[in-house]
Amino acid sequence: MVKEKTNILFVMYDQLRFDYLSYAGHKTLKTPNFDKVAAQGVNFTNAYVQSPVCGASRMSTYTGRYVSSHGASWNKFPLRVGEITLGDHLRKLGMDCWLLGKTHMEIDEEGMDRLGIDKGSLIGVRQAECGFDPWVRDDGLHGNGPSGNYGKNDGSYNTYLKNKGYDGENPWADYANGSIENGKLASGWFLENADKPANINEQDSETPWLTSEAIKFLDNVEKPWCAHVSYIKPHWPYIVPAPYHNMYNKDDVQKLIRDVRETKKPNPVFEAFFNNTIAKTFQNEEARTKASIAYMGLIKQCDDQLGVLLNHLEKTGKSDNTVVVLTSDHGDYLGDHWLGEKDLFHEVSVKVPLIIKHPDPKFNSTRGRKCNALVEQIDLAPTFVEIAGGKVPTHIMEGSSLLPLLSGETLKDWRKFVISEYDYSITPMRKILDLETWQARLFMVFDGRFKLMHSAGGHAPMLFDLLKDPNEFTDLGTDKHYKEIIDSLYSQLNEWSLRMAQRVTMSEEDIANKTGGALRNGILVGVHREADLSSDLTDKYTGAARQIHFEKDEDRIKFGGVDEERD
Predict the structure, then answer these.
(1) Of 476, 411, 418, 412, which Cα lies nearest the Cα of 445?
(2) Nearest to 230 by CA among 357, 290, 140, 316
(3) Residue 126 scores a pLDDT above 70
(4) How far apart are CA 541 and CA 544, in angstroms?
């Protein structure tokens, strides 16, 4: 049991690759504040998200459940009313659970209306905010198009900018994610503008703004808390304010992880993705280079602001009782594997940074260590429950607490494989592949060496041997020499698919304790005679009759097997 008033600072960055941090080996991008936390905590080197897309990944993180369990499988797919989230678990343990920034949560409005839940009530707000109490919510995606806005409201950040004097309907787009060229708007949506400075005071840009909100929170919170500080960056648009826009140059850009072998007789699913608009743009060297430079600038700004946040924790004495968790919701291809964005299951997409620093002295022996165990993002929720002093509800949460690994224990029964899922039914690639919506699903199973990508649409699987082929260039999915390996991975995927995922109202312990309990509650179905059971189970149904309410036998006759009254 940890200290009663241990807090959790749960920091998530959007679209941050695991290999774009200096502690992870990036040669030119220096991130001293990430490095500092890694030196004081444990660096989990094999951490995988449950989906390579924001919404689905985050819903898994916040529930501790796989995507196919909670059902919110893509961005703007609502998380159903009643799904139990991290906030629900922690509040029962006396720990508040706050949101500062992004969740990508989509409210199940139909479900709330069906149940008569007032959206303005406490329960209604928590249902809308993925179980969090919102300090400030902003998903950082304020796009405008011919069909309307991507977001349903103006957003906290846009309101902040307007109050600061930035004009227009959408200062997020015009200033924070736009530049100026020859007196005209140069939008950050277009990668050709990624090398330009955002037209905004650096301290007013998204990352410092959220840091300032986090500091306000820290200065005003009293009760033990979990604070989810969720930064939108380094997520696109790829544009960053000065001085971060030109801190790096093309020589700092990492070598592309791609090979012509990937394009020769490609798997049809992979082919559909590397021929889409985003991929084609990142196959343009100029666009890729500009985006990568801006991406590094965004990460450097994130690291600097992490330093501001950590320094405030230390200055206020809160670092002594605060667990610090740093992670991401997925990676970014940046042109690797001929792709952009994060749609498939290569390492640069589904493997994420994960650092946990626990202040308790009992974890001193593991500070600065690397843990190579296979870890899933759904492990964070049960970890937080244990930090708060609770027992993990294993019938609800499908992840496992990381505290034993954090303390250096060697666990013989730790998971042998990780799972990730991708529902691309709403994307153009489904139509390109001529699939029904239910067919446009991908599953990854990875055992630490071999990675299988299964297509529900009937296409051949993709298979990579990361020991011999760490860059994942050679697809072995149709290689007959690997049939035994493929069969073994499918066996693991099948094992996972048969899990008990929906029985969330009864724990295994409850079921075990209630097994056979019906007998003790007087339900004696199928018993032949009294002597077949112990007397304590039957004594309520035996003994002398107290009253008789039917005719005596001599007043009734048997006729044709049916009792008939006498004439």
Answers:
(1) 418
(2) 140
(3) yes
(4) 10
Fold entry, domain 7-508: Alkaline Phosphatase, subunit A (3.40.720)
**Where would I find the beta strands (DSSP E) of 91-203?**
96-101, 133-137, 144-145, 148-149, 178-181, 184-187
Q: Is 165 exposed, middle or buried (0-12, 13-18, 19+ CB in 10 A)?
A: exposed
Cα(294)–Cα(287) distance, integer angstroms: 11
What is the DSSP code string of 345-392? -SHHHHEE-EEEE--SGGGGGGTTEEE-S-EEGGGHHHHHHHHTTPPP
Q: Write the CB contacts of 507 (distance below 8 Å, at least 6 apart in sequence).
A: 393, 394, 395
Predicted pLDDT at 2 = 41
401, burial (CB in 10 Å: exposed 0-12, middle 13-18, buried 19+): buried
Cβ neighbour number for residue 77 with a 10 Å cutoff: 21
φ and ψ at residue 247, rounded to 5 degrees? -70, -25
**CA 106, chain centre distance (Å):** 14
Give the Å distances, CA to CA, from 560 to 233, 552, 565: 85, 19, 13
- Rounded to whole angstroms, the Cα distance separating 80 from 71 reads 8
Segment 16-34, tens digit of pLDDT: 999 999 999 999 999 999 9
φ and ψ at residue 219, rounded to 5 degrees: -80, -10
- Secondary structure of residue 92 in the 3-state scheme: coil
Burial class (CB in 10 A: 0-12, 13-18, 19+), 264: exposed
Report the Cα–Cα distance between both ends of the chain, in Å, rounded: 80
Q: Classify residue 259 by burial, with Cβ atoms within 10 Å: 0-12, 13-18, 19+.
A: middle
Per-residue pLDDT at 253:
95
Tokens 């489904």 appear where? 430
What length is written for the chain? 567
**H helices within 434-526, ranges in order?**
483-497, 508-514, 517-520
Domain boundaries, the chain: 7-508, 518-565
Residue 82 has which token pair? 């009643």
What residues are paired with 325 via a beta bridge? 10, 356
Which pLDDT does position 554 carry in this prediction? 59
